Amino acid sequence: MYRLALLIFFCCSATAFAQEHPAVNAQANSVYVGADGKYDAAPDTALIQFNVSVQEDRPQAAYEHAAKETEQVRQVLRANGIDPKQANIGFFSVQPVYDYRSGKQKLIGYRVTTDVTLKLKDFSKIGPITQQLADADVSETLIVNYTLENIDEAKNKAVEDAYRRARASADTIARASGRTLGELSYASVDTFENARPMQPRVGLMAARAAAAPAPTEEFSPQNVSVTAHVNALYTLK
């Protein structure tokens, strides 16, 4: 019986060619394959972001107005069973506001701005909170992002899918060459996640004018896609 030196590189999808593959020394009686896998997971966290911005003639008056607006935010959170400590508030910035229409710089007031970020696991609270913030008129715009914080399980699922594809490809090649697939002797894994799937901007003035449902009501957030690439080297019998 003659010894057959066989090293085969096989790729299941065209996108894998764009990736950098680790150097693997050619081995006799072996097959080297690469495959992509994917897993779609429902997001587990909603991120609500908005800013409080007010303007008054004097800095102290602007600060007091901003403090009153942020107190309304606290009341909205408490009304929905959320401890205000769960929200993150940025620093208050005070900036002078000028009017240049006359051709000269004229001080007309002071603007105080701060950012508020809230993470929610209970998506049923998104609608009531955004609607109540609209009624409180604390901000003109609001952003809702859906993300996947517990992403490790999704990555593992994507790796499993990629490995199944890689092994199936190696088995096909082995059978086509009249051989039997042996043990796994080498493997490398890369995982990737897509960007935040959804960033709708909700105009609070528009939400206040709407009759009943909140902008996000009855819609499902887009899934988060996690992909993995597996390179595997098998022996051949």
Task: Give the gist of this structure.
The protein is built from four helices and ten strands. It has 237 residues and is α+β, with helices and mostly antiparallel strands.
Which SSEs are present, and which pair or pack?
Layout: E1 9-11, E2 30-41, E3 45-56, H1 59-79, E4 87-89, E5 93-99, E6 106-120, H2 126-136, E7 141-147, H3 152-176, E8 181-193, E9 201-203, H4 204-209, E10 224-236
Parallel strand pairs: 1-2
Antiparallel strand pairs: 2-10, 3-6, 3-7, 4-6, 5-6, 7-9, 8-10
Helix pairs in contact: 1-2
* Helix-strand category: alpha+beta
The span between the termini is 13 Å
What is the H-and-E element order?
Answer: EEEHEEEHEHEEHE
Low-confidence stretches: 1-19, 196-211
Strand composition percent: 35-45%
Gyration radius, rounded = 28 Å
Number of strands: 10
CATH topology descriptor of the largest domain: Alpha-Beta Plaits
The helix content is 25-40%
Number of domains: 2
